[in-house]
């Protein structure tokens, strides 16, 4: 599949968004309630007819900015759907970021039998999509998550600098008998197509 046009790292893949953060945060980010918009992107964002509201922001390193959006009445600790926007104000190559994320996912196979992933890129390799599925826990604490990450270059600093923008969607289910994997093929087909055509948000770093 060639698309014309983050499961994360960018596998955040999110597990989970905080455990395998995009652009490789090595430590789990503080999850205190911080909703100070860093992108001039307060939301809500709309994806596949669902509205996502700003729920958490972080600026964990000088170059990395993160904002998470979830539907109304969902929570960060127990969401079923999430949108993630991350900006890396650095001259990284997208190919390198995606390769690193896939390597992290591959390593995760030793502890997670569910792990699977695939990447796609457009002809000039200016945009990539990485999608993956991951899981953790057992019994009632079991969680399975599918993520799709879209990587694109963006300009910042009055347009004089180039960084990497990641726009991602995440879908999660809980409990051992959630039937998530039974519907994953249909979900994946629909949401990957939506992500391919989703216009990257226009952001301004603060």
Broad shape: globular
> Which percent range fits the helix content?
10-25%
- End-to-end separation in angstroms reads 36 Å
* Topology as a string of helices (H) and strands (E): EEEEHEEEEH
Supply the helix-strand structural class.
Answer: alpha+beta
State the domain count. Answer: 1
The strand line-up of the biggest sheet is 1-2-3-4-8-7-6-5
Beta-strand share of residues: 25-35%
Biggest sheet descriptor: 8 strands, antiparallel
Radius of gyration: 16 Å
Topology:
Blueprint: E1 45-47, E2 50-58, E3 64-70, E4 81-88, H1 94-108, E5 116-121, E6 127-136, E7 143-156, E8 161-174, H2 184-197
Antiparallel strand pairs: 1-2, 2-3, 3-4, 4-8, 5-6, 6-7, 7-8
């Amino acid at each position: 599949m060639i698309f014309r046009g983050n499961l994360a790292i960018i596998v955040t893949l999110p597990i989970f968004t905080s455990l395998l953060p995009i652009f490789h945060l090595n430590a789990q980010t503080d999850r205190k309630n911080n909703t100070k918009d860093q992108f001039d992107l307060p939301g809500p964002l709309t994806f596949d007819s669902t509205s996502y509201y700003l729920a958490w922001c972080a600026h964990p390193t000088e170059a990395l900015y993160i904002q998470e959006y979830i539907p109304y009445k969902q929570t960060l600790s127990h969401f079923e759907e999430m949108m993630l926007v991350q900006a890396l104000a650095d001259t990284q190559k997208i190919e390198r970021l995606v390769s690193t994320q896939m390597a992290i996912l591959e390593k995760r196979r030793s502890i997670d039998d569910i792990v699977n992933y695939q990447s796609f890129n457009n002809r000039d390799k200016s945009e990539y999509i990485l999608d993956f599925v991951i899981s953790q826990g057992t019994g009632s604490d079991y969680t399975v998550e599918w993520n799709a990450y879209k990587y694109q270059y963006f300009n910042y600093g009055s347009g004089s600098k180039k960084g990497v923008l990641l726009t991602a969607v995440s879908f999660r289910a809980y409990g051992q008998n959630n039937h998530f994997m039974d519907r994953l093929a249909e979900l994946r087909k629909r949401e990957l197509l939506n992500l391919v055509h989703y216009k990257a948000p226009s952001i301004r770093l603060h």
